[in-house]
Amino acid sequence: MAKLSKTWWGQKFIEALEDFTNSGRLSRGRSYSSDRRILKFEIKKGGIVTATVRGNKNAYFGVYKEPKYTIKLQMMQVPEQDWKKVINYLGSKASLVSRLLMNEMPDNIDAAFSDVKLHLLPRSREDFKLTQCSCPDYANPCKHIAGVYYRLATQLDQDPFLLFELRGLPRDKLHDALCQSPLGEVLASTMDERGDAIEEVVDSYYPRPLPAGGIADYHSFWHGHKRLPTDIEAPAPAAVPAILVKKAGDNPAFWHQDNSFIEIMEDVYARVRKNRAKTGI
To answer: Residue 272 and residue 281: Cα distance in Å, rounded?
Structure first.
């Protein structure tokens, strides 16, 4: 069966639900996650998810006309004092704060929450404050709620920062809080509001030479005050290689295929390197 979710975040969200939800009931909702079924979908303030789902006629339940059911979901909100612990921890890790300020969700974000005794993805039914459907099915999740779960997973494919909003922290507050951390303040000073590096305008392509002051000490210039090291440590690879390609994620807006855009580009670059090695160009 094809996966409805394409990225790590969406897949992990569904896998987390499957750990404490009847997998059979959950899978029934796959066909209820399409636009043909979900007539209205909205995420409101406080992480409240509302949806209108088109149901089926069912004489057993006394439903003789095609109904429209209202679904409401809300995850438990992380308390403010716990958010402060999370922000302090994220702001102390350069690998995390740098990617978050560039609007990239780190793959190990849930592990980072675990380090402060919290979790971002749901782990039990208690992580959902509200799961309601107006249909007559008494079981939870019904297929309409399950369909909204799958729709949430596809939304996370496009915007993984919804995980924070569903837990009660809007992205603008997250960004502002991270910018106030020591590492975040330094990084934010080099980026614009979209997370792109700020370009400085200069009056010359090459740096202009500055006049030397005093009498040149040629002996010190050529011999130096300290012996040069015999072993030079190899430079570390870039923290985020191929940043321009990876910035839009696995499924950018222009990409409509089921496979990952980043994986395709990695294969393209590998072929280019191989061809260059053969031709010597």
So the answer is: 11
* 258 located within any domain: yes
Is the pLDDT assigned to residue 207 strictly greater than 90?
no
68 found inside a domain = yes
Decide if 149 contacts 71 (C-beta within 8 A).
Answer: no
Burial annotation 16-47 (CB, 10 A radius, 16+ → b, else e)? bbeeebeeebbebbbebbeeebbeebebeeeb
Q: What is the pLDDT of residues 238-253, one digit of tens each?
A: 555 667 777 777 788 7
Specify if 231 maps to a domain: no
**Phi, psi dihedrals of residue 238, rounded to the nearest 5°:** -60, 140
pLDDT in tens, 86-136: 999 998 888 888 888 888 888 888 888 988 898 888 888 888 999 999 988
Tell me how far the alpha carbon of residue 83 is from its chain's centroid: 18
For residues 162 and 155, is the Cβ–Cβ distance under 8 A?
Answer: yes
Same domain, residue pair 149 and 51? yes
Question: What is the extent of the structural domain holding 76?
Answer: 8-81+105-169
**Which DSSP state fits 251?**
S
Q: What is the pTM of this model?
A: 0.63
Q: Do residues 264 and 145 both lie within one domain?
A: no
